[in-house]
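Task: encode each sequence below as structure tokens.

Item 1
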Amino acid sequence: MRILVVEDSKVVSKVMRHLLTQELNCDVDIAPDLAQARQLLASNDYFVAITDLNLPDAPEGEVVKLVLAQQIPCIVLTGSWNPLERKRLLQLGIVDYVLKENRFSYQYTARLVKRLQRNQCVKVLVADDSVVSRKYIRSLLEQHLFQVIEADDGLAALDTLQDNPDIKLLITDYNMPRMDGFGLIINVREQFSREEMAIIGLSSDSDQSLSARFIKNGANDFLQKPFVHEEFHCRVLNTLDALDMMTKLWEQANLDYLTNVFNRRYFFNLYEQKLPSRVESQGELSLGLLDIDYFKKVNDTYGHDVGDEVLVEFAARLTQSFGQRFCVARFGGEEFVVAFKGLNIEKTFTLLDCFRTQLESTPIITSNGKVTITVSTGLATYRSSETIDNMLRRADLALYNAKASGRNTVCIAQT
């Protein structure tokens, strides 16, 4: 990713280059005037441009129009506050207008660029019965590179969420036909937690209790219409940053630090309390307990760094084979578990035995060369009113039998 900074101050240019490379590990080109900016724009593709408003050869902000003509997102830096100039620039479609007041201004700008990079993968649903309002909010969001989907009321929004479960932000008006904003939020929160989706409520209603009611019903934030351009973007940015932080905390609690598959804690939280109801809704459940054969020998022969590489690749292969449909978790060390919901013992055995064969025939490429590993597996299927602990004990016994019979095999626990 390449970023253009157009700035005649060497100090500001140096600060921006440092912050951008620190935040994004990107390439940063510096142009001290309009002439050099024009040359760089002609020969490079830029993700975003950060431009000073007043340059020696362009004192009226001509560089902004030059950047926008290239359809490059533009962030304007300026040393003075001019309300009329700000309004004119925002109408041109710049990303933001930042005063060069202190170091925080430059940190905000770097953080904004990082947010723009992430926004390209973020879907936002805008629910509002007013076409004018929807289109205005859409234009603001697209300036920040979001993927935007529209819905004209609460029921249409729910249908859209069913078709697009990867939507990360819902922006909803209060007054809508068929289902209002409160009804929409209540329904959404039954399906999506705060870690999965953020919600911002909007309203032009003068009722001062609306903001509290929105937040109590599950919204993350609330904006009164009409809102200021910058306030909208700041609220969206802060809301998504908070969502990212919650996601990161959830991952730290539920994903294995090395292999990035689910950890033991997540697995037990998923199945310990609700095993009978989960099996009832899914028909059947089988557990495969997998243990890499002679893994200590891998560590002793190649070192623990290579051992970690083997674990990472083994987990990646498990995820590739089963992770799209089933729960893959690391229990610790070289032991992993896969929960096959909805599959009987015969189909599960076939899948695990196929995985075992492919693993044996495809060496793992490590920093110390190729390493061939095999895996022993114990397999158990759910019995009526059984706990997850008991299922795992039977799978562990089957794993013991697999090792006792020579390893590199799949054994089924007795029913």
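Item 2
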Amino acid sequence: MSPRRAITLVGIGDDGCVSLTSRAVSAVTKAGVLVGGERHLEFFPQFHGERIVLKGGLSTVLDRVAELAEEQNVCVLASGDPMFFGIGGLVIKRLGAEHVEILPQPSSVQWAFARAGLKWDDAAFLSLHGRSAEGFLTRLKRHAKVAILTDENTSPPVLARRMTEHGETAWIAWVCENLGGPDERVRRFTVEDLAACQDIGPLNVLLLVRSDPSWRVPCTIPFLHEDAFAKRMPKKGLITKREVRLLSLAAMGIRPDSVIWDIGAGSGSVSVEAALLAPEGRVYAIEVDQEGVEMCRENLRAHAVDNVRVIAGRAPEVLADLEPPDAVFVGGSKGSIEEIIDIVFDRLQPGGHLVVNAITLENAGETYQVLRRRGLVPEVTLLQVSRAEPLAHYLRYEALNPIQIFAVSKPIQTGVAS
């Protein structure tokens, strides 16, 4: 016999009881306790049992729900589909799936695509409700159609202004407000017009669709040429060359949600590509030279990458307050390589990767000795790249500076059985 499901999680729209199924209405009728937001509870003035308002302290409310459910039926109200960016996951985690019956409604995102007349099986979904907009632009880069749940701090005009500031305007926007309610409104905008709009309601879904139908997803590995970045001179610029960048980034083992330190970021080329490889993560670009700091920021704007925080200061002094990294790249040390490696290995997540680029023999020797003193044997690659350059009607090879790439991982400590 299946266990009694004393808790029913009912999805509800802005039209209240009107669109509820008979099964959902029955769940409310049979309940001795009704739980939900103030707006949801107002849809049931005829309910005479105990009412519990969901606001703040959700853990405390769920503890109370678990206690009440031992003796009576409890109905929890939630917006749309509770299992789609809703409280459903928390309810199941706390109370157990075997005790909860879920009766979903169409989600706000489903309603938004329906109202805009757009298919949504090829869309990506992003919730900024209660979250920072940091990384929003970077995550957009790999999608042609996106549905975004917003709040007052990440409202559609705020996001549109962020897009405009970074030149990310080749989109059509739909703002769908109060979906399913009597004051429902669906409007289409250009990004520039949306940035200037001042009458968007707080209950909305933002849809973004690329305006160019021929747009294609960018390459998985950026492999950007140095000419794609503003950089310091002399000669071809003080910047990590793309072949070196490719091997270094591969050795860093970057995942979509990695936290990355780029020490001695310079023009920010490694930061930009690392950020593109970790759209749900964060990159800290540490640079002491003020000209490099400004160029790094310029390149972040030019490539519409917004999950990079530029830290103006000298390593290792500015590293102490940064969140622990999963991967670290050291492209410049200003003579402090030993101190940098020491603090990196103290803060690096177990299993995380450190990659150091060394140009001089002295820097390479010091890097090797510091790692060996920690009992680590690095993987070392001497990379010598020559590129074909025009010479009259011919091509000749021109050699780039050789680079030594040191790569090492922090050991994962395993527990010892007693």
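Check on item 2: The chain has a mean pLDDT of 93. Residues 290-302 form the longest helix (13 residues).
End of task.
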